[in-house]
Amino acid sequence: LFPQASMMFAQCTQKCVSSMLLIALLCCILPPPAQASKSSEDIRCKCICPPYRNISGHIYNKNVSQKDCNCLHVVEPMPVPGNDVEAYCLLCECKYEERSTTTIKVIIIIYLSVVGALLLYMAFLVLVDPLIRKPDAYTQPLHNEEENEDTRSLAAAHTPSGARANTVLERVEGAQQRWKRQVQEQRKTVFDRHKMLS
């Protein structure tokens, strides 16, 4: 029962992720809308005007088309009188900026779908995988050794607080020694198998 449920869950997850990625790719492939139909959030003209006489510097933003991206169309209200407008506008640096909100939305959808797939996979590993996985004959002695180490550390935990700090270090050192022994045993078995094969 459990293996069938896990297979169905994995297939459902794969279908959901593949459909989300397909939708996101279609949105990327479709041609962007024409310049005339662009939303006002996608285009803007930014004019940076430095200080001029007694007027402090200022940055002006306005949603205008590229041909209207100049000081006369963006700087409103004009801070200088009529005869100084040309000199003031020569100092201003105007840049046309354009972005695609559709691309931003697609990237966010892809990101959220990947995160969602990872969360589903994590839920699968936490809930279903321990029920399916059978205890391995090779790892059982290792678990027994870890349980023995835990019981020894629990027995040592009943000692005074000064000794308790030492038990934490001893546990870390014990885990390190166990890991080194496991690595050495694995190396030995690999080399033995290699000698047998050659």
What's the gist of this structure?
The chain has 198 residues and is mainly alpha-helical. The protein has helices spanning 2-29, 71-74, 85-91, 101-127, 129-132, 140-157, 161-197; strands spanning 43-49, 58-62, 93-98.
Uncertain ranges: 31-37
Order of helices and strands: HEEHHEHHHH
The average pLDDT score comes to 75
Read across the widest sheet, the strand sequence of neighbours is 2-1-3
From the spread of the alpha carbons, the general shape counts as: elongated
What fraction of the residues are assigned to beta strands by DSSP? 5-15%
Helix content: 55-70%
Question: How many separate helices?
Answer: 7
The structural class is mainly alpha
Biggest sheet features: 3 strands, antiparallel
- Termini, distance in Å? 44 Å
Organism: Aramus guarauna
Keywords: Membrane, Signal, Transmembrane, Transmembrane helix
InterPro entries: TMEM9/TMEM9B (IPR008853)
Biased composition (Basic and acidic residues): 182-198
